[in-house]
Amino acid sequence: MRILAMIKRIITEMLRDKRTLALIFLAPLVILSLFYFMFQSNDNETAVLGVRNVDAALVKNLKNKQLKLQKVKSSKQAKELIKQYDYAGILSQKNEKLTLTLQNSDQNKSARIKQSLQLAQIKLRGKTASAQIKKQMKLIRQLSRQLGSDDNHGFAQKNAITYTTETHYVYGSSNSTFFDTLLPIMIGFVVFFFVFLISGISLLRERTSGTLNRLLATPIKRSELISGYLLGFGIFALCQTVIIVLFSIYVFNIQILGSIWNVLLINILLALTALTIGLFVSSFASSEFQMVQFIPLIVIPQIFFSGIIPVSQMAKPLQIFARFMPLYYGGHSLSEVIEKGAGLSKISLNLGILAIFIIFFLILNQLVLRRYRNV
Amino acid sequence: MSTVIKASNLVQGYGKTIVLKQVNLEIKKGEILALIGPSGSGKTTLINSIMGMINPQKGEVTLLDTRMPNRKILSNIGFMAQTDALYWTMTARENLAFFGIMQGVPKKQLKKRISYAAAVVNLEPSLNKQVQYFSGGMKRRLSLAIALVADPQILILDEPTVGIDPELRQQIWKELHHLASEGKTILLTTHVMNDAWEADNLFLIRKGEAIAQGTPRTLIKKYEVQTIEEVFLKAGRLQDAHTSND
To answer: Alpha carbon of B108 to those of A6, A29, B51, B90, B152: distances in Å?
Structure first.
């Protein structure tokens, strides 16, 4: 009953505060969109692709506005050619085997070359197919004229060449489209950040306005108070997560290889962690301004350990430090699920650790409330 | 009449600073007691101790024969804090309903209780207005209404008459007397000496010590002065003389 009233109150208050509402639901989308455009910005720059011994038909179909082709005669290694002439990539052919070597320092260019190559092959197949249909139509007409004839020679198939492609990278690897790597982590971070800030400030306001004291002057249990907060803000965190994930799928066209339910689950746990940490930290702030001061202290460092920079390449002490960051577990789980299609069993350890974070801070919150009421 | 609120040999403080020294206080059923003292004298600490927000360092506090701190007893206390602890984006009715539920008012009675509490403080026409559009006086009145909403046996009011116009002040006092005659026990703090005259008993507190206790009339007689204010000043001088003798 009391918990329900708490939840209802939090929702009512939030719905009436239009700016905060906008901050929760629109700001993350703006930030993520900004990211999206930042990493798509140099789309207009043309990439130069060196081609060596490639079928003329394929070359013809490869050409597009953003891809300049350069015939290469030299028999040097592709890697050296790329370094020497700063090609975005080199495509060489041997029989029906294509070898694509990409410079990959600008992942946008690499992505475009790969895309163009795929497109060219599809076009090529389409063209051969349509040419063949035309030829057959002609033959059928001929056949109908000389009915009875069994001249089938014209049907001799001219198969479209199916190329096999092998791709090499001079720098980085195949899964380094930056936005794709970054987005799962950014989703987790954005959820963490906003839930932390809003729940923390909201409890702070409750404290400074005196309503917390008034609440504690009623027979409400401390655990009821905390649960009310957890559930009330949990509902908003859930909505926020769903919106962000849907936005990523439909607007950014990001492919979630794993289950979308796992993505939501990770984000919910991440949001609850942020919530309990936010509530806890808010008791050490005496104003909204002081609450904001906790952002560089508690939220920003989490980014570094969330997987944007590979943690396994960090110095040992930092790697240990990373284990204390909730976003380390959240960010890595999100990358695993979204990029590599990991299942629940693979991320269950990370989720368990997030759950421990939540329980730990829940207990701390209970203890902190003792400062205001001893029972 | 039975004793409802009792503090005996109460010593209270935060860390090493002692805020209350050996306070003894007794309030009987149906009594209105006014706690009078300058800011920093320990009034709020005394109230917090009585409500069981803080454990007594020494001595004990009992409410309705139950030793404090006790969470469940809180449902019998209507509390009005010094600050207008209200949710600004919610309407007066929503504020009342929320605290009503928190105090444990059954859902069926909630509507009736809200109308009653709002009527006492003349807030019925503004019940559906958001608190952020209220004037200072209206907020104070709503805060008082919240203390009344659960029909508690004990009312603890921290500065209930600040920012309220004289007419309404009189009306509120009329209602408080009425509540007391129904058997409710009222403990309030005040700066306003006129409020002191309305109370049954006074409890003068200074530097964490009770310097005088009794009905307004007996106190004035005892200290041979004209006003409560003078009682306070005289008792204060006596306290200082006493402590310098120590």
So the answer is: 19, 44, 28, 21, 17
Confidence of residue A154 (pLDDT cuts 50, 70, 90): very low
User: A53 and A34 in one domain?
Assistant: no
Minimum CA–CA partner of A1 in chain B: B101
Residues A148 and A240 in one domain: no
- Minimal CA separation from B54 to chain A, in Å: 6
Domain boundary among A152, A169, A186: A169
Q: For residues A329 and A350, what is the distance between their CA atoms, to the nearest angstrom?
A: 5
Kindly state the tokens that stand for B93: 């009715």
CATH class in words for B29-36+70-245: alpha beta
| CB within 8 Å of B119: residues ≥ 6 apart | none
A371 contact residues in B (CB cutoff 8 A):
none
CA A135 to CA B4: how far, in whole Å? 106
Last residue of a domain, one of A148, A169, A190: A169
B201-206 vs B154-158, strand pairing mode: unpaired
Its domain, for residue A54, covers 42-169
Three-state helix/strand/coil letters over A256-290:
CCCCHHHHHHHHHHHHHHHHHHHHHHHCCCCCHHH
CA dihedral A239, A241, A247, A252 (to 10 degrees): 180
Give the whole-angstrom CA distance, residue A30 versus residue A36.
10
Distance of CA A149 to the CA centre of its chain: 62
Distance CA A350, CA A353 (A): 5
Against a cut of 0.80, is the pTM above it?
no
Min Cα separation B212/chain A (Å): 28
Residue B158: CB atoms within 10 A of its CB come to: 21
Tell me: ipTM over 0.90: no
- pLDDT exceeds cutoff 50 at A196: yes
